[in-house]
Amino acid sequence: MLELFITVLASLFSVVNPLGAVPVFLAMTPTYSKAERAHTARNTSIYFILILTVFFLAGTLILSFFGISLSAMRIAGGIVIFLSGFSLLNGKMAESRAVDKKVKHEALEKDDISFSPMAMPLLSGPGSISLLISLYAIHTEWSQRFLIIGVIISLGVIIFLILRSAPYLFRIMGEGGLKALSRIMGFIVMAIGIQYIITGIYDLIRTMQG
């Protein structure tokens, strides 16, 4: 069970890439006090946990409602994850998650950015959602599913700590250091995406043959 926890946490952390969200978070909160940033970080992590937990638990319903097979979800999710990783590799995390200049400008005028655009789509995007839906279908035992929910909660806590420490992380690592880490994460995310595509195609061929 510990191996499953670490494996899922590593995969989800790579896809979500909270460190890559640090410059975006700071850019959207230039006038915030330390207390206001901490409050926003806390709300963002709570929304993140709720969004991903709901999509994780509703995974089977989503697949059955739209008549989507697990193989198709893996292939589509793999492509999304691969493209997300490619964007990270090119230093375009925000743009790949629909957080463009217009969204950033609107965020500066909003009273609360914790739900949108921080929790969604910046942190909990199509890549993480498709990954969790696939994990729900793969792990049929509820003990494993509750463990994955524990991973989501743990990552939410990590996100809170990272965003709360955003000014210090940016000061220590700088934008160049954070971008370098994002590029490393991008390579890992691309590999995860390719693995899901390969697994989806393999399962699809087996289903057609059987």
TrEMBL record:
It is a multi-pass membrane protein. Pfam families: MarC. InterPro entries: Multi_antbiot-R_MarC. It is found in: Cell membrane. Keywords: Cell membrane, Membrane, Transmembrane, Transmembrane helix. The chain crosses the membrane at residues 45-68, 75-93, 145-164, 184-205. GO terms for cellular component: plasma membrane. PANTHER family: UPF0056 MEMBRANE PROTEIN YHCE. This is UPF0056 membrane protein. The lineage of its organism: Bacteria, Pseudomonadati, Bacteroidota, Saprospiria, Saprospirales.
